[in-house]
Amino acid sequence: MEWLNPVNIVNGLVNFLNTGGSVLLVIGIVTLVLWTFILERFAYYLFAHKPMKVRLKNEWDARSDKRSWKAMAIRDEMVSQIKERTDANVGLIKTFVALLPLLGLLGTVTGMIQVFDTMALSGSSNARLMAGGVFKATIPTMAGMTAALSGLYFSTVMPRWSARETATFADELQIG
User: Fold this and answer.
1) What is the reported pTM?
2) Nearest-angstrom CA–CA distance, 62 and 39
């Protein structure tokens, strides 16, 4: 249970950030934003989506005219509202999932530049020095890939949820 101690968690996080360099902090911030958007999507589907659908469906059902050009335009506008709300932030989630491995590679490249710079200054090709530097340089890649994998499932599933919910709602609005 020692690992649940908040002091140990903070110390471990600080050691990890010191090992991987400043790019790890950027990866951590982007990952936090990614998961904030993912959780926002879950909160929308749990709390706001169904009341919005019910409200719009009741508005549609209360209309006496459901066949005119104006009624079709209103129906399309209601379907667009559902599509807009279900698609919100999905593009950002996909962008962050694609961005995180690139940030990891950036950290690796900057780490490798530091290794080569250190080797040039010391004037030797010490294998131990190189191994330690390469170890430090690869940590951002691992962190970026891991963070991207944590959001990859949701970046592929959420557009399908949006399309399904929009199509279902469009089918629920009876014409005529």
Assistant:
1) 0.86
2) 34
Contact 128, 41 (CB under 8 A): no
- Per domain, the residue ranges of the chain are 6-175
**Whole-angstrom distance, CA of residue 101 vs CA of residue 103:** 5
pLDDT digits (tens, 9 = 90+) for 29-88: 999 999 999 999 999 999 999 999 999 999 999 999 999 999 999 999 999 999 999 999
Predicted confidence (pLDDT) per residue in 112-152, tens digit: 888 888 888 887 777 777 787 788 889 999 999 999 999 99
SS3 category, 63: coil
Yes or no: say if 29 and 84 are a contact pair by the CB < 8 Å rule: no
Alpha carbons 17 and 141: distance in angstroms, whole number: 13
CA dist 165 to 6, 9, 151, Å? 41, 40, 21
